[in-house]
């Protein structure tokens, strides 16, 4: 079976037209037509029917079934190419979400330098949801992921290394700085400066507000945690952050939420179960677990 035939089949399925599929793949229409014919002969079935009234192709049930397997086969082949290229490069692509990258990667950097692993790493920064997709597609080898529940994925090997609660942060100039604890309902009417949808914080804030029956007054969204902290420090508004992102050196005051129903921020290492780990990759995973797992994290 020709892999190209499967690629053309998927394109025809998506376009429902031989001519459009040929344009998409930059080949002649007969090339596409012959590819479909070869597949039909291979499987001894009809994959498409012509709908002359709408001038389009309609996939048969057999065609729909083949599509499921074709997409999987092509995805696996693409993943194999990426993994073999990565092995040849000798580099480890390490995915880091902004908060974990800012506040946990510096903790393991000295150990990475001592073990001479730092030069083997190419860091890729993105939100945890994007990194999880990149792991699956083979664009990242290992990732540190943040989530609101333990990550359960049949394709990934996931190990928890830390978890933390969320806190309210306020300026030292804010009257709320006189408090150490607060109920979320008591923040009704306060201006919130929060991280945008690329962070799990947005979902966590929705969860807290839903349980408290209190919608926060969000006045500014940002993807930069440093901007968030600066605006809060200037008393422009208050913030909502995982305690793992709050440093002692921040000129901010943090409050513990008293609400019974609260989300937890889980931090884990993850890699594909199908991946044959190199010595360097095993060393990086062991180092992360050793340096970051513990009561102080």
From TrEMBL:
One of its GO terms (cellular component) is cytosol. The keyword DNA-binding applies. InterPro entries: HTH-type_LysR_regulators, LysR_HTH_N, LysR_subst-bd, WH-like_DNA-bd_sf, WH_DNA-bd_sf. The keyword Transcription regulation applies. One of its GO terms (molecular function) is DNA binding. PROSITE patterns: HTH_LYSR. Residues 1-60 form the HTH lysR-type domain. Keywords: DNA-binding, Transcription, Transcription regulation. It holds the Pfam family LysR_substrate. SUPFAM superfamilies: Periplasmic binding protein-like II, Winged helix' DNA-binding domain. It comes from the Bacteria. Belongs to the LysR transcriptional regulatory family. This is LysR family transcriptional regulator. It comes from Ligilactobacillus pobuzihii.
């Amino acid at each position: 079976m020709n892999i190209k035939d499967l690629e053309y089949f998927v394109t025809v399925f998506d376009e429902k037209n031989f001519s459009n599929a040929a344009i998409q793949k930059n080949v002649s229409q007969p090339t596409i037509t012959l590819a479909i014919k070869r597949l039909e002969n291979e499987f001894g079935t009809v994959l498409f029917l012509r709908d002359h009234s709408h001038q389009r192709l309609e996939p048969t049930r057999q065609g729909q079934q083949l599509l499921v397997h074709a997409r999987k086969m092509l995805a696996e082949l693409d993943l194999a190419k990426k993994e073999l290229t990565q092995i040849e490069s000798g580099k480890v692509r390490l995915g880091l979400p902004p908060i974990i990258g800012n506040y946990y990667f510096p903790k393991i950097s000295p150990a990475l330098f001592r073990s001479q692993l730092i030069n083997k790493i190419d860091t890729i920064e993105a939100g945890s949801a994007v990194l999880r997709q990149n792991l699956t597609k083979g664009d990242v080898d290992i990732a540190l992921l943040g989530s609101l529940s333990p990550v359960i994925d049949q394709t990934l090997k996931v190990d928890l290394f830390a978890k933390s609660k969320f806190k309210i942060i306020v300026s030292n100039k804010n009257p709320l700085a006189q408090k150490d604890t607060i109920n979320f309902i008591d923040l009704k009417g306060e201006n919130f400066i929060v991280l945008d949808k690329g962070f799990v914080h947005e979902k966590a804030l929705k969860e807290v507000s839903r349980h408290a029956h209190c919608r926060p007054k969000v006045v500014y969204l940002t993807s930069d945690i440093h901007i968030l902290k600066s605006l809060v420090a200037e008393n422009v508004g208050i913030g909502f952050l995982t305690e793992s992102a709050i440093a002692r050196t921040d000129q901010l005051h943090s409050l513990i939420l008293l609400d019974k129903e609260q989300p937890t921020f889980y931090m884990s290492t993850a890699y594909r179960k199908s991946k044959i780990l190199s010595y360097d990759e095993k060393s990086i995973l062991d180092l992360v677990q050793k340096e970051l797992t513990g009561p102080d994290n």
